[in-house]
Structure formats: C-alpha cells, structure tokens
Amino acid sequence: MPGELKPKNIFLLAGQSNMAGRGGVYNDTKTNFLKWDGKVPPQCTPTPNILALSLNKTWEIAREPLHKEIDNLKTCGVGPGMPFSNQILAKCPNFGVIGLVPCAIGGTKIERWQKGTNLYNQLVDRARAARQSSGGNIRALLWYQGESDCDEQDSRLYKGRLEKFFNNVRQDLESPELPILMIVVSTGEGKFLRSVRDAQLNINLKNVVRVDSMGSTYLPGHLHLDTKSAVRIGQKLADNFLHNFYIICN
C-alpha cells in the first residue's frame, strides 16, 4: 500500500456483537437466515483516510460490515467503528489516516478475553501487526462487551476480570497508559445487567473513559443496537476520544 495510505492513528475494536456490528441485520423469513440489509448510512461512508486491518493483516479501505472477516460465524452489519472514524475526521480534518483493527467476536464473555485465550492472543497479535506494518501509534482500545456476563456468577466476577484484561493488554502492548473507550452496556443476556453496569461504571483505572449506551434503540430481541444507535455510539466514542485524549484539532 502506498506510504501515504499507511495509518498514523490505530484504533483497536474489541468486545462482542455490538462492537462487531449488527445494525441492519434481519431475519429473512423465506430462508430463516439472518441477513444484512446492505444499507450504509452517510456516517459510515468509506474513504481512503480510513483503513482496516484485514484477516490476513493487510491494510484495506475500511467498509461495512467492518467485522465480516473476523466475526465470520455470525451475520455482521453496521457497528460503531466507521461512524467513530468519520466523526474524528469531520471534526479534525488534519488528524491523519486512521487504521481500524477489528477484533470483536459476538457472544463472548469476558472470561474468553483473558490473557492466554485465543481471543486475547488474536487481539494482541493483530495490534502488534498493525503497529509494525504502518509505523503508526495505537491511540486507543474501543471496548464494547458485557452483555453475555449478565448471569449471577459472571456479573459478580466481572469487575476484576475486566480490570485484569485492561491491565494485561496495556502491558503486552507496552503502553501502560493506553486510552480505553468503554461502552457501558444497556442490554444483557440475564437478570444481572445492573451488576455488570455497576462494575463498568466503577472501574478505577487511569485513562478509561465510559460512554453509556443507555437510551439506545435496538433490533427485535432487544439485545443488538440498530443502525441509528450504532452510528450514535460511534460518534459519542469519537467525541469522547477527542475531548479526553486529543484536545487540539489543528
């Protein structure tokens, strides 16, 4: 890829289905299979200034569904990654080329993201490959997960597991103060959503910024964000990143 298209600013996208994107996914009643409606909102428009690391670790122009290759056992749709990137470039035109590193996998508990697991290893491996191949800097981890931890036992252990995960990622990427933008979940597979939310809201680590998804609109089943809310969350992530970690747009 031409040097000018190598990303200066790398963002890691990890978590479960709402980070992978389910906006526009519907059940085709003729086949009873889930399909994506193919509708790409303006906020998700592809541009040469937004790249994505493919499954085989090459940089390509990012486009929806961003996680199609990574979360490949599920039907992916619109997620927060593209609106996040477009919002940053709209507010800071001189920000530089953005490189997204999709790593989210639907239906995954925090336990499956602990150090030594396949998901953790893939995240760290792809992050390192992105940094090495581009010469850019990892600006932040965008994290949207917790819906699958809303049973009694997992919700009780969630805070400790999440803090451990964040600390390990920072250590293994040699970035002890890596900014983390965490979406606070608003839906869950279980009765203990409030416990998971409380855990996320009470994480006490430096440079962890929360974006609450409460008030979002969802697909049928009330678990996955619809396209409108995926865009809104992505834009909120961008605004919070710029406000907290990139104050001057020149």
Distance between the amino and carboxyl termini? 27 Å
Structural class: alpha/beta
Radius of gyration: 17 Å
pLDDT < 50 stretches: none
Q: Quick one: biggest sheet?
A: 7 strands, mixed
Kindly provide the name of the CATH class.
Answer: Alpha Beta
Named CATH topology: Rossmann fold
Query: How many structural domains does the protein architecture include?
Result: 1
Count of alpha/pi helices: 6
Give the helix level as a range of percent.
25-40%
Q: What strand line-up does the widest sheet have?
A: 5-4-6-1-7-8-9
Strand residue content: 15-25%
Shape: globular
Number of strands: 9
Order of helices and strands: EHEEEEHEHEHEHEH
- At CATH level 2, the architecture is 3-Layer(aba) Sandwich
On the 0 to 100 scale, the average pLDDT is 95
CATH superfamily: SGNH hydrolase
Can you put this structure into words, describing what you see?
With 250 residues, the protein is α/β, with parallel strands linked by helices. The protein has a single domain, classed as Rossmann fold. The chain contains six helices and nine strands. A seven-stranded mixed sheet has the order 5-4-6-1-7-8-9, sandwiched between helices. It is globular and about 45 Å long. The mean pLDDT is 95. This is Sialate O-acetylesterase domain-containing protein. Keywords: Hydrolase. InterPro entries: Carb_Esterase_6 (IPR052940), SASA (IPR005181), SGNH_hydro_sf (IPR036514). Pfam families: SASA. One of its GO terms (molecular function) is hydrolase activity.
